[in-house]
Amino acid sequence: MATDAIMSHEVQDENELWAGGKEPFGASYGKLMMWYFLLSDAFTFAGFLISYGTLRFSMPTWPLPDFVFSSLPGGIHHAPLIFVTFMTFVLIMSSVTMVRAVQEGHNGNRMGVVKWMGWTIVGGAMFLSCQAWEWTTLIGTEHMSVITNPFGTHVTDGVYLEDEHGHPYAAGEKAETFTAHHTYLIEKEKDEATGKEEWIHRKFKTKDGEIGQQEFGPKAFGALFFFITGFHGFHVFSGVLFLTIILVNAASGLYQNRGNHYEMVEKIGLYWHFVDLVWVFVFLVYYLL
Amino acid sequence: MANIDTAAGKKVVIKGMILLGAITILEVLIALLGNGHIIDGFHLPKLLMYPLMIGLSLYKAYFIVFEFMHMKYELPGLVRSVLLPTALLIWAVIAFFSEGNYWKHNRKQIQDWNKEQVSTKENKPAAETGK
């Protein structure tokens, strides 16, 4: 019958498509494998985000991101999430310039590719510098590490019994109060007696009358933060390296001679967009939620 | 792709830049507003903030994958072989967040039970005869 002939013809075409020597998905080997590599990388990052999310939401308290991440370069404080939003913009802009680079490649415009890839590399380098500043502030100024988390959170309202330096309030001094879910930073100061840097666990009294001390926050906070942002930063760094190599190759005319519309630029563009995509989710999950 | 002319291409890029930038600002505003940083003491319930921010981020992800990474123009086979596992991954992340929350609930319940007072002698016989 006529329909049988059509169906068997379709099946034959299908078999031929997958029998070898053709591109079943319409993409070259390199591009297809880049997609599958990115998929595998997505599994890795999803694993990290899952461990972060499960630990965080299983804990009674967690440092509030808008308290922890509220400084700007130049000694500015109380600017919650501004710096990290700026970092997000930088990465988005570098993705946009990457799209322009790929478009110029499709048009065979060598200098256009070089120019726009250059801007993408600048964006990536800026992001890395910002992340380096963030780490330096957290490690150097706030003394956070993979095993120490000086950001704790109150569970009930109360009033402090000591000032920021750990000394009991004087007679007329107004004692600082706090509310539940208020995040604090345990400061480290040089003790006058011993000359060593000591943590100041300020004493406080809760509204139920219990006396307590500022405790360290969940250890997992520091470990997860440095590991996840470090892994992502490593991807940005390797991306910048690859972008530089491919920019040099493009400038030399190597891809022009291949005649494949600068497909190499497209492939590294996929990698760079993936890096931006991961940051969208890290930004969401660590800083916004 | 060689048949997309430059002017239209540039337009998509500008549109993408503005869209992604605006959505990011919106997400940050929701986070800051809901935590009382813009209007003092103002709080939004997490049940409202979280789905909004997650939804906006998912839209950003959709835009980056489909437009910047050209997924919209790929063959269905490629699209499905990449997106189906990714969708399952995103579900896994959300499921585990909920799982962690469940652990917290369990821990709190055990803490509350530990704090409960033991029943007095008068009450005990009544409870045992019940068995």
List keywords for this structure.
heterodimer, A: 289 residues, alpha+beta, Four Helix Bundle (Hemerythrin (Met), subunit A), 2 domains, 60% helix, B: mainly alpha
Brief description of this entry?
Chain A is an alpha+beta fold.
What can you see in these coordinates?
Chain A has 289 residues and is an alpha+beta fold. Chain A folds into two domains: 30-147 and 223-288, Cytochrome c oxidase, subunit III, four-helix bundle (Four Helix Bundle (Hemerythrin (Met), subunit A), Up-down Bundle), CATH 1.20.120; 151-213, no CATH class. Chain A is built from eight helices and eight strands. In chain A, strand 5 (188-190) and strand 6 (197-199) form a beta hairpin. In chain A, helix 5 (110-141) packs antiparallel against helix 6 (219-251) and helix 6 packs antiparallel against helix 8 (263-288). The longest helix of chain A is centred in the last third of the chain and has 33 residues, at 219-251. The mean pLDDT of chain A is 89. Helices cover 76% and strands 0% of the residues of chain B. Chain B contains four helices and no strands. Chain B has helices spanning 6-34, 46-68, 76-115, 123-130. The longest helix of chain B has 40 residues, at 76-115. The relative contact order of chain B is 0.06. The chains are: A alpha+beta (289), B mainly alpha (131). Chains A and B meet through helix 2, helix 4 and helix 8 of A and helix 1, helix 2 and helix 3 of B.
